[in-house]
Amino acid sequence: MKLQNILFPTASTAGEGGMYFFTSSKMTDSGQIRLKAGESLTTDTYFNGLSADKWKKYTVVREVTLTLHLQGKVQYALFSKVDKDGGEEKLAEGILTPDTGWETLPIPWEKARGIVYFRLTALEPSVFYGGWYTCAAPAQRPVKIALDICTYRREAYVKENCRLLWERMTRDPDFGHFLIFVVDNGRTLTPEDLPEGVRLFPNANAGGSGGFTRGLMEIQQAARQENITHALLMDDDVLLEPEALLRTYTLLSLAKVEYRDGVVGGAMLRLDKKSVLVESGALWNRGWLISRKKGLDVSLPGACLESEAEEPVDYTAWWYTCLPLSLAREDNLPLPFFVRGDDVEYGLRNARHILLLNGICIWHEPFENKYAAYTEYYILRNQLIANAIHNRAFSLQEIRSYVKNRVMEEVYMYRYRSAQLLMDAVEDFLKGVDWLKQTDAQALHQEILKKGGTFLSPEETAQLFDQESYGKSIAKKTELPFFHKVMRRLTVNGTFLPSAVPMVSVPVLGNLEINVYRAEKALYYDKATGRGFVAQKDAKQAKDCLKRLHRVERRLSAEYEKTNHQFRQRYRELTNRKFWQAYLGLPPQR
């Protein structure tokens, strides 16, 4: 059975050659590498190294071979990379002069560990056309994967991704184990927009959780006739390396019995810096999420081993998560979170074994390039619900302190809309299971969007933007005297003092409250989009937020434990097919 193909850079990743090969020869997206005499290439890379330790741990792989397509005379050597600083063990070596262009080399699998890779050195002008790794072990069970793609008014992304995937599926027999289900929360797509074999389901706009859940429900129904075994939840706006699908299929097909309920997660790489990881699995950390491998540049030497180092993880995000339908049952569906935290809670509930593998990944716009006030509501509300269900130790004292600090941060920065939304989140959480069950998700979302406000256009933002104050705001800050800190607290960051400057420009994310101290207005600038919004100091709004915060703290003291208990006891009322059919406005019998 084929384990993985040797990949070449594509048109979109041509500048990230170190993810594929290390070589002095010029790399293009032509699917070949021409080597002059004396030049070499190695594959101890993110996409082309073979993760021996993981294939041995999670699967029944045995008798592994490497097939190479070559022209010319080359010296080869097979290695195990055992530490990120260059430590390696030679497994085999020799000279190849292929008459047919193809050579198959046995790999001493019992000796292989870390990352297995090969080096080719041209003894005369030669061409490398690719190859693959295979193993003698047959598939341990049938696997058929349905892609569950949720979209909302991103027609261009969905059309292009579905076109590329369907084209590959129809011409490559290796892709015969996949189906595509698209759930359209915006109801803007028609069947004619997508390839004939893609299944389209117009859906109520119940957010990502509603879209992905609708997809799971349709996949569950189709599975009865089509022997679907897994659902792959995937964002609509990602850049995908199709090989990720094949490695996912192979990993699941060869899995040992104890890992057959495993969830395969895809790492996220930055779309703007394509070799830099954003996350490869994550820890819940009671809602203060920790992204594993964040910032690792997988194009650097040794990074292929570092990226495969196993660490505890609690969940994988729904930009790429493949889970068995034995877990995603009709009585074990996601919670109606709309957005933010749905994948976290579902992972905590179901992911007993999380399988991560180099090359199973997507590219996505990094989240620091995204800001919207409305998301603060969902993040906090859904964090409270997830903690109620999964973490009895999240105390009243902790949550009161956290809520107070978050609200005051927004008040200090004049972002009174966001402060109010945070308090809305707490109060809606305290309304409990029945409120969440009966809420019109679309109407609530529109209300939250309205409260969150809107960004100015890039043209309007440019007229207000001040480079000098923005530069100061992103510069490293020195420690301020204790008296200054006390003064800022007593005056709510200068809200009750006369303004010293008319306006400052500051980053929309990662801003420090000191940057707006005693400014009349602040332009919150989003560098990625060139858009921004203006927040103005307002003593009355600040006082209103403080008064409401006191009321919210009192309600938390009185109702927090009762609400926690209710969610723990009754959350299953929100995770079954009957509930979701009503929630999405679907007929009761489907």
Describe what this molecule looks like in 3D:
It contains 16 helices and 25 strands. A hairpin with a 4-residue loop joins strand 24 (519-526) and strand 25 (531-536). The model has no long low-confidence stretch (mean pLDDT 94).
**Roughly how much helix do the residues carry, as a percent range?**
25-40%
Please tell me the overall pLDDT. Answer: 94
Q: In this structure, how is the largest beta sheet organized?
A: 9 strands, mixed
Give the overall shape, derived from the CA principal axes.
globular
Alpha-carbon distance between the two ends:
38 Å
Protein name: Glycosyltransferase
InterPro entries: GlfT2_N, Nucleotide-diphossugar_trans
Features:
590 residues; six-stranded antiparallel sheet; alpha+beta; 23% strand; 16 helices; globular; 25 strands
What's the short story on this structure?
The protein has about 600 residues and is an alpha+beta fold.
Topology:
Layout: E1 2-5, E2 22-23, E3 33-35, E4 40-42, E5 50-51, H1 52-58, E6 65-71, E7 74-81, E8 88-96, E9 102-106, E10 115-122, E11 126-134, E12 145-151, H2 155-171, E13 178-184, E14 199-202, H3 207-226, E15 230-235, E16 239-240, H4 243-253, E17 263-270, E18 277-279, E19 282-283, E20 290-291, H5 303-306, E21 320-324, H6 342-350, E22 354-364, H7 373-390, H8 396-412, H9 416-430, H10 432-438, H11 441-452, H12 458-464, H13 467-474, H14 482-490, E23 501-507, E24 519-526, E25 531-536, H15 539-570, H16 577-583
Parallel strand pairs: 12-13, 12-15, 13-14, 17-22, 23-24
Antiparallel strand pairs: 1-11, 2-4, 3-11, 4-10, 5-10, 6-9, 6-11, 7-8, 7-10, 15-21, 16-22, 17-18, 17-21, 19-20, 24-25
